[in-house]
């Protein structure tokens, strides 16, 4: 059984102070209790210590781009706390394969040799799922347990940033969360989800990577080395 200490949140950057009140709210305490039960009963992804990997890797003040996903991959070895990303050595899931295909077409760059996107996170790309955990082979089963309220707060805080942020909203689920981005200083880019079911309906050719970088440069920020 996982120890309680594994669910104590220490992000070791400016998110700690910004989210302090959120971690003390009743809904979050209920969520934490639910997670302790879930991790004790069977396989849940990502590993408990990686639930907040995206927030740890991308501090609030350094966030330039937000890429919103729905919930983590639900197969063994795939989820590691970053939306759409998989650890090095893990085969590319179909959506990630399409993302990297669009990246290559957009920026005419060399194909990546792996699907780990942590290098994006270190440059200021917050790879945020709306729901941060999932039961093995049971997608969305951790929805409506409190995660959405938590990640809504993250998006609201980013909407309040004085420095403009790019929000990449792929698919209807991410776009619904985009209603929280109300400040016109930010750039919101929308496209269909990169899954094989919808990528050909407008994700391919959206050129969000070059458009994001152009906006960052226009607002005096360093572009992302995608």
Helical fraction equals: 25-40%
User: Outline, from the CA principal axes?
Assistant: globular
Low-confidence stretches: 1-7
- Going by helix content, strand content and strand pairing, the class is alpha/beta
Q: What gyration radius follows from the Cα positions, in whole Å?
A: 17 Å
Describe the main β-sheet briefly.
4 strands, parallel
**How far apart are the first and last residues' alpha carbons, in Å?**
39 Å
Along the chain, the helix and strand elements come as HHHEHEHHEEHEHEH
Strand content: 5-15%
Please count the beta strands (DSSP E, at least 2 residues each). 6
| Tally of helical segments | 9
Largest sheet strand order = 3-2-5-6
Mean pLDDT over the full residue set: 93
Task: Explain how this protein is built.
With 226 residues, this protein is an alpha/beta fold. The chain contains 9 helices and 6 strands; from the N terminus they run H-H-H-E-H-E-H-H-E-E-H-E-H-E-H. The strands form 2 sheets. A 4-stranded parallel sheet has the order 3-2-5-6. Strands 1-4 form a two-stranded antiparallel sheet. Helix 8 links the parallel strand 5 (166-170) and strand 6 (187-191). The radius of gyration is 17 Å and the shape is globular. The N and C termini lie far apart (39 Å). Residues 1-7 have low confidence and may be disordered.
List strands and helices in order, with pairings.
Blueprint: H1 15-18, H2 20-23, H3 26-41, E1 44-45, H4 53-57, E2 65-69, H5 94-107, H6 118-122, E3 125-129, E4 134-135, H7 147-159, E5 166-170, H8 172-177, E6 187-191, H9 208-218
Parallel strand pairs: 2-3, 2-5, 5-6
Antiparallel strand pairs: 1-4
């Amino acid at each position: 059984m996982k120890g309680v200490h594994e669910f104590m949140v220490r992000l070791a950057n400016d998110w700690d102070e910004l989210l302090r009140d959120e971690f003390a709210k009743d809904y979050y305490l209920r969520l934490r209790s639910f997670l302790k039960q879930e991790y004790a009963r069977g396989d849940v992804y990502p590993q408990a210590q990686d639930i907040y990997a995206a927030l740890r890797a991308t501090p609030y003040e350094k966030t330039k781009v937000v890429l919103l996903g729905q919930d983590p991959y639900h197969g063994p070895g795939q989820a590691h706390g970053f939306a759409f990303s998989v650890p090095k050595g893990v085969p590319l899931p179909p959506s990630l394969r399409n993302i990297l295909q669009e990246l290559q077409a957009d920026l005419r760059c060399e194909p990546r040799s792996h699907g780990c996107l942590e290098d994006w996170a270190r440059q200021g790309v917050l790879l945020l799922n709306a729901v941060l955990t999932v039961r093995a082979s049971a997608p969305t089963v951790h929805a409506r347990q409190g995660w959405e309220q938590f990640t809504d707060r993250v998006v609201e805080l980013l909407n309040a940033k004085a420095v403009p942020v790019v929000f990449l909203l792929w698919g209807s689920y991410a776009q619904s969360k985009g209603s929280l981005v109300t400040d016109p200083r930010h750039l919101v880019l929308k496209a269909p989800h990169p899954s094989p079911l919808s990528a050909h309906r407008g994700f391919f050719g959206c050129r969000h990577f070059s458009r994001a970088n152009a906006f960052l440069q226009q607002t005096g920020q360093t572009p992302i080395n995608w």
